[in-house]
Design goal:
Shape: globular
Number of strands: 8
Oligomer: single chain
Largest sheet: 4 strands, parallel
CATH class of the largest domain: Alpha Beta
Number of helices: 10
Helix content: 40-55%
């Protein structure tokens, strides 16, 4: 029969061994619960959607955009390599609202079986301008809803739900990541509202290359005229340019902004004829590369706000 002293010693040793076993296998068990054995392959139509998807997926997915940084999705031509990516994908994320006209054909021709997330599902679009003769067709409205931080909250929710459907084991991680990112977006909106509060309403008037910032303008109280409509598929006509020159003078626009995926040639012409200055480069339909000023959605919005403020506040 063991004495109380020996029973205590044996119990203590068992507790030490059990603790050591937990330390030895605990991290491995936790890792197995949070990281997939093989990342989910996700294809997005363009770079901004890729960043939003990465913020929600983190290490659980390998996210690839078809239209990369500084590239124009309006005029993109899909390649055979794109078809292979789409066919092999476990999830496909598109903007919708007629933005990426190449995607429906590509998905059909590739024989893709993956679920498709439409990031703008549930968003009421701004009515697109159709009277400027640009030769585009966006019957569903202005597709550039990501320029509204509030709308991007819906993007994040739709992407989260799509990831959960494609990878149910990651549901807790996707929900956690989405909540953290939504908090970052709330902080971002507060920052921009505070920054723009110092800019008088009569100075929030500018000209942009194409009509991609209507959601931004509505959210932050700007008047933005555009040389082109919501698509860049067709070159602006002489009539378009003349109209913008007239509006620039009438509304006393202080600056003209070019976009990272457009030529500055026409903006420079308008600046010469109106006396408005070139205010800088805005990122509208594509992020920059990693070395640029807008490699993520949040960095893009901060960059655009800074460029607008610096140009429109200057005397």
């Amino acid at each position: 029969m063991l004495t109380p002293h020996f029973r205590d010693v044996i119990t203590s040793r068992r507790q030490i061994l059990a603790g050591a076993l937990v330390l030895a296998i605990g991290p491995g068990v936790a890792l197995a619960q949070t990281a997939p054995s093989k990342p989910l392959e996700v294809v997005t139509s363009f770079s901004i959607l890729a960043d939003l998807t990465r913020q929600v997926a983190k290490e659980r997915a390998n996210v690839v955009p078809l239209v990369g940084p500084n590239a124009d999705a309006h005029v993109y031509q899909a390649s055979p390599a794109d078809a292979r990516k789409v066919k092999d994908a476990g999830l496909i994320v598109v903007n919708g609202l007629g933005f990426e006209t190449f995607m429906p054909r590509l998905i059909r021709s590739a024989g893709a079986k993956a679920p498709v997330v439409t990031a703008t599902a549930g968003i009421k679009p701004i009515k697109a301008e159709t009277g400027h003769g640009h030769g585009h067709s966006h019957g569903a409205g202005d597709p550039h809803a990501w320029q509204s931080i509030e709308a991007v909250r819906t993007y994040v929710a739709n992407i989260r739900d799509g990831l959960i459907k494609a990878d149910p084991a990651g549901e807790a991680a996707y929900r956690r990541n989405a909540e953290a990112y939504l908090a970052e977006l709330a902080t971002l909106k507060g920052e921009l509202e505070t920054s723009f509060a110092a800019l008088p309403k009569d100075r929030r008037v500018a000209v942009t290359s194409h009509d991609a910032l209507a959601y931004f303008a509505r959210e932050f109280g700007f008047t933005l005229e555009a040389v082109q409509g919501v698509s860049t598929e067709a070159e602006p006509s002489a009539k378009d340019v003349a109209r913008i020159i007239r509006l620039t003078r009438e509304k006393k626009a202080r600056a003209i902004f070019v976009e990272n995926m457009n030529s500055p040639r026409i903006a420079e012409q308008i600046a010469r004829e109106t006396g408005a200055k070139i205010g800088g480069t805005l990122f509208s339909d594509a992020l920059s590369d990693e070395k640029g000023p807008a490699p993520t959605y949040i960095a893009m919005m901060r960059h655009n706000a800074k460029v607008l403020l610096e140009a429109l506040k200057a005397e």
